[in-house]
Specification:
With 144 residues, the chain is an alpha+beta fold. Helices cover 17% and strands 36% of the residues. It has a seven-stranded mixed β-sheet, with helices on one face. It has a two-stranded antiparallel ribbon with strand order 1-9. Strand 2 and strand 3 form a beta hairpin. The longest helix is centred in the middle third of the chain and has 15 residues.
Length: 144
């Protein structure tokens, strides 16, 4: 087992793990911006698993975890040079918003937002296991 170091500014961290090999396949995190708004940080899927539904599962996992904590709005920033990411978020119900926070004035950023419904759709489980770590808890996050 390896310990996973998590940034102190991250409120929730998910890791998708291949059940057969124990290898990480992707990750995603949420950082709280205010009492009801969070920002997606570090959304990543290994190249070999892109297009498999893993990114959607991670996103739904973030949305469900956000709702469980009373966070109803999710924002994110991606780069203008990342059209696949832009299409993905738009397809998943995120709408483009004005640049916010540190991204104001950036020529390279595009920001999105989604106000969550009362309940996020269930995760499709095409990914194996998703391990969630709440940095506010005393439990040490582990990847197997």
């Amino acid at each position: 087992m390896r310990s996973l170091r998590v940034d102190a500014h991250i409120d929730l961290f998910l890791v998708a793990v291949d059940d057969a090999t124990g290898q990480p396949l992707g990750c995603a995190a949420l950082r709280r911006l205010d009492p009801v708004t969070v920002e997606i940080k570090r959304m990543y899927v290994v190249p070999a698993r892109r297009g498999s539904g893993l990114a959607t599962d991670l996103l739904r996992g973030l949305e469900e975890a956000a709702l469980e904590r009373g966070w109803t709005t999710i924002r994110l920033e991606t780069g203008v040079a990342q059209p696949d990411a832009m299409r993905f978020y738009e397809r998943e119900g995120y709408r483009e918003i004005p640049l916010y926070g540190a991204y104001v004035g950036s020529d390279n950023s595009v920001c999105y937002e989604r106000v969550l419904p009362d309940r996020a759709p269930a995760v499709g489980h095409v990914l194996g296991s998703v391990h969630m770590h709440d940095p506010g808890s005393s439990a040490e996050p582990m990847m197997t």
